[in-house]
Target: ATP-dependent permease
Amino acid sequence: MRFYGPQNGSITIDGNHIQDIDTTWLRNNITFIQQHCTLFNETIYTNVALGCQEHERVTNAQVTECLEFAALQTTISDLADGHDTRVGSGGSTLSGGQKQRIAIARARLRNAPILILDEATSALDKLSRSSVMRAIRTWRRGRTTIIITHDLESIQTDDFVYVISAGRVVQQGRRGTLASLGVDPAAKDPRNLKRQSLSRAKATYSIGPTQPVAGLFHENSVEALTNTRNTRATWGVEPSTAIDNKPLPMPPSAIELSDRAIESRAHGTKAPLTTVAETSRTSMRAILIFGTFSMTTGYHQRVLFYSMAVLGIAAADALASFAMHHLLESVSQLWVDRLRNEAVRRILQQPKGWFDDITNRPSRLLASLDHNAEDIKTVVDRLAAQIVVVVAMMTTALLWSFLTCWKMTLVSLAASPILYAVTKSFQMISSHWERRTDAARAKISDILLETFSDIKTTRSLTLESYFHKKYSEAINQAFYVGNRRAMFGALFFGISDSAVTLFTSMIFWYGAYLVKHEEWPVKSILTVFALLLFCTASATAVVTYIPQTSAATGTADRLLRLAQMPVISHEGIGLLKLDRHDPSTLSGPIHFINQTFYYPSRPKVAALRRLNLTIPSGKCTAIVGASGSGKSTIAALILGLYPPSTDNLNLSDSPPSLTLSGRDIRTLDLATLRSLIAIVPQPPVLLPATVRENIIYGLKPDSELVSASSIEASARATGIHEFIQSLPQGYATLIGDGGLGISGGQAQRIVIARALIQDPKILILDEATSALDHESAEVIRRSIINLTRREGGKPTVIVVTHVEEMMSFANHVVALDKGRMVEEGSFQDLVDRKGKLWELLRLGGNPRTSAEEND
Ligand SMILES: Nc1ncnc2c1ncn2[C@@H]1O[C@H](COP(=O)(O)OP(=O)(O)OP(=O)(O)O)[C@@H](O)[C@H]1O
Model:
């Protein structure tokens, strides 16, 4: 895929050095499906259609065909919105196997000459995997297909195999030939493997007749393909992608945001000085100096006196302004911090279903709690300050002018409803456009997040231009909205400016009229005139703040809503705190009774249907079933992520409940419950931190479980200790985003070590060994066996799995089908019973069960 260039040696395709091939061309002709494939926050239809360069032209029928190919069409037809169902951020509303099958459907539509499957079916049950693999083999006949896998069963005897260990090819040849030499990489007994060479080996296979990769281009030669519409005419080496130290140019919205944040901070210090200048210049100086002009004698002293008075007032004003802005800035910061704090507190108490809602996706929460919160300070420290100043000044000025010339003051006040109406309309329209601008900005950040969150998928599907186009459209839309906002803003600024001019002319005329008819002395008229003009200037200053404050009010509104939203959640209901040191804590079985469960974001399709299930304590239970049958949902309910159902749908059944060790989960304090449960999720999640921090994540620093020896013991139990020691800084090596890149299997073992160190009462492994080779998986299995055999305090282990070895070593196996428990018992019992499990394994082409069937 040329994510990285070869450093030495060479890679050739059809005899052409890979670095001589145009990168876009290359990626257009290779489809790469990763184990943890990322889906985009779009509909199922768009996610599949994006496989095609001309995705706008993809028809529903084509998408249906590809989904059928990936054995997913039936599941999707059951969804209320069918193809138009949104998959959530990263595909969060789909099961692991469903995500993988959408990626396979996308690859089918893409139909590239080279296909690379990197553990691409690891989350599928055997039944789906074998049917999908069969379909892939038929489709790929005679075309280059590279399967990177630990699942040796899916490899056929005439497949060409490369066994790779420590970055070297240690065996190669057809699987049949290797098997006849006694080095069958598919042999499950590790003793059959050449231990030295095959230990921790990953096998790479190519389907179909063995031919050099180059030979598979016979129909679509490089030259022919370079002339296709989607390729560049010349082959060039990809320009260096290294980022130099220059700051990246930011999109306008980002500039705007950061500028505003900086401005708002600077404002606190700048404001007193500005106020001194403004106030002294406009108000007192004008009024007093006007008065001195009408004096005939002794004006020197008066000028000096008033000048000194102005100076004194300016100094006092500076102090007052300093105090005001300092206080307002502190108060606004305090207010925003409190709001943020409260919002985070309430968000954390929301049930998991709340986070599944698209409007509460992480990018939106981040914007409301971080960037927008800075804007909100503007409402307080700018607008509030301005309003306080303007109201105080206007009241004083109006009172003063009323006492000086009430007639002129009343006439000028007659215009105030018009000025108010203009200001109010401006504010309303400004708010409307601010909301639209805000939505346009949010769309831009969503697109950026989606583009960069999994750059590997974006690159391998050559979606750079798609996202760039989408980004440009969003920018254009934001520009259009910004333009309309500017037009309406300018219109109102024009109206308010002309209203001020009209108002000024009106009081000029009326003042002249009063002087002409000698109703009031010139001095009074000039004083009132100055005061009223000053009032108008202050009022207009407020108008200029309207667009900014409308924006800030909109964002403040969102933060306020988060800070005040009701916490309707099951999270805080249970009060019974569980004691880790009490041997009876969670020492009993887990009972699901008549549980029918609907995900809040998909209220019409049940994930579990009247599930009755008992998970014995201190033993290992394997939960098996087809992809999407509800296995991970069981884990989510045990963790209390969603409330169990309590509605008795059928009165003849026992009332639904979920109990742990005889206690209803609703009565338990979920925080303490979760501290006693360790879960290894399907995609291993690493934090950008050191290996040590990743292993002890979740433990309190003063916990007795945090010690160098326990960290090492848990790493040894998952067989990752030697690897960690080989890292440049051992346990202090940075991994995760921005740190050292590690393989999916290594990440999985670190996450399992994290679970083991917690010494959990319940350990849940959700497809936790899917990225591991046979030997590493065996290490994990041995560790689990040791856990369930140790003296006292045995944890209850639940493994959600499609892997036969994992099922066979479990004490108890539960088979699910479409959210129902269809059978349970020991592995051997279920195999003998020839029921659902047998069907799953037999159809997966399992030699052992097939043989048993023949017996
Ligand atoms: N957050 C969610 N919102 C809505 N539906 C969901 C969500 N998570 C899972 N589902 C749906 O619930 C059903 C059961 O999903 P679950 O993840 O439990 O399946 P699974 O048996 O673990 O599958 P797999 O083996 O593929 O991981 C699936 O149809 C899935 O699409």
In short: The chain has five domains: 12-226, 248-287, 301-350+352-563, 571-676+761-771+794-825, 683-759.
